[in-house]
Amino acid sequence: MSPIEAAVVWLNDPLNWTNPGGVLDRIVEHLSISAAAVALGCLVAWPIGLWLGHTGRGGGLVVLIANVTLAVPTLALLTILPLTVLGFGRPSVVVALAVFAVPPLLANAYTGVRQADPEARDAARGMGFSGWQLLRRVELPLAVPYLAAGFRTAAVQVVATAALASFVNGGGLGQIIRAGFGLDIAAGQGQILAGGLLVAGLAILVELLLAQVERVVTPRPLRATRRRANRRAADAVAGT
Amino acid sequence: MSFRLSYRADPGNPWFSWQYARDNSDTILAAVREHTWLTARAVLIAALIALPLAVAAYWFRRLTGPILAFTGVLYTIPSLALFAFIAPYLGIGAATVLTVVVLYALLVIVRNAVAGLNQVPEEVREAAEGMGYGRWGRLLRIELPLALPGILTGLRLATVSTVALVTVGVVIGRGGLGQIIFAGFQNNFYKQQILTGTLLCVLLALVLDLILAGIGRLLTPWTRRGRPA
């Protein structure tokens, strides 16, 4: 039996879906872990990114953080954090994933505020806005499309990385793949492939969904220029 | 019944010890070698595939979208899923790890190379044409050299992320330094083992990045000449 046939057979077994620890359970786990991680990432990265963008300082810091997290293996954080005060279990997995959500969120929040039209900023100043008002009523609304773009990048990345939580028994769809590898490759190939399809499908689904959200929150006149802006934000992360 | 055992109070699990590194230098060095070798091969193969793709995207505008979209989709697929797709076919071994990391590195290299090629000024292109350069001559002698900074940025980013990604190879027992990290985790959270693996990973990424940066400086002397000394 080819791996694809075996995967189809595995996916067609209703018990694989409804069993405790079956696909449905794992999807709920996967999404709840990811949601918690992204929420935590936003909570940390957005205020810092917006503030750095507002003051116009710390651009180097943003790039540095992005580059350093690129070099740290996910596996390392997943295994190190349970040894700290967080302890073994859900919290340390969420924090580890949140760390990888921070760079795109931070970079896009920073770029979003920075790209705000200097004339709009000057006009607001001329109208007597304080620094705080300027951030809240001018820069923040203008940065929303960027925040959405960062959110999408971060969320897709977290959903993808959450599969690795299975290395430390953190739950999620990765568990299905890991369990498949735990069997012999011949016996488990269907399960491995099915798990892979589920993980990839979920990531792509989240990507498509959030792309729609990003479109909706981007004001119509800005939509045409979004692609270019996106590229620029990505380049900011890439350190070019 | 509760009496404290003094020798259990401190089980001796420090975050780092030279003793561990010395006693296990064979294993560690073997892991470093495997990791470096996998990374080097992966980046080289990825570059050999990605550069022709980038040139194709540059020459034929209609291909740009599809090529970037294709590599982008590959990049969206979670690494573990990619292992799951490939392992049943290529089996448990270095070939699977290599394939996965190559597929991942493609996007970064292609995107940066295309950006680099597109940065070549229109006047330069026209001047080269006027001097009688053909399509290939122009590409090899003018456009690729001018796109080198972009290409090198792509290679550096790809190298750094590949070093981190190879660790996911633990899932099939070929994770290089990831093997050390994961063994530490399974060894009752042997902290120094995990940390040694992690530090070596980051260090390896840094060293390879610096080597590529150095090569870049040597290959593109003109990018330094303009600056006042």
TrEMBL record, chain A:
The keyword Membrane applies. It is a multi-pass membrane protein. Keywords: Membrane, Transmembrane, Transmembrane helix, Transport. GO terms for cellular component: plasma membrane. Its main location: membrane. Residues 27-210 form the ABC transmembrane type-1 domain. One of its GO terms (biological process) is transmembrane transport. SUPFAM superfamilies: MetI-like. Coiled coil: none annotated. It is found in: Cell membrane; Membrane. The chain crosses the membrane at residues 31-52, 59-81, 93-111, 143-168, 188-210. The keyword Transmembrane helix applies. InterPro entries: ABC_transp_perm/SBD, MetI-like, MetI-like_sf. Belongs to the binding-protein-dependent transport system permease family. This is ABC transporter permease. It comes from Micromonospora endolithica.
TrEMBL record, chain B:
Its main location: membrane. One of its GO terms (cellular component) is plasma membrane. It is found in: Cell membrane; Membrane. The chain crosses the membrane at residues 42-60, 67-86, 92-110, 146-173, 193-219. This is ABC transporter permease. Keywords: Membrane, Transmembrane, Transmembrane helix, Transport. It comes from the Bacteria.
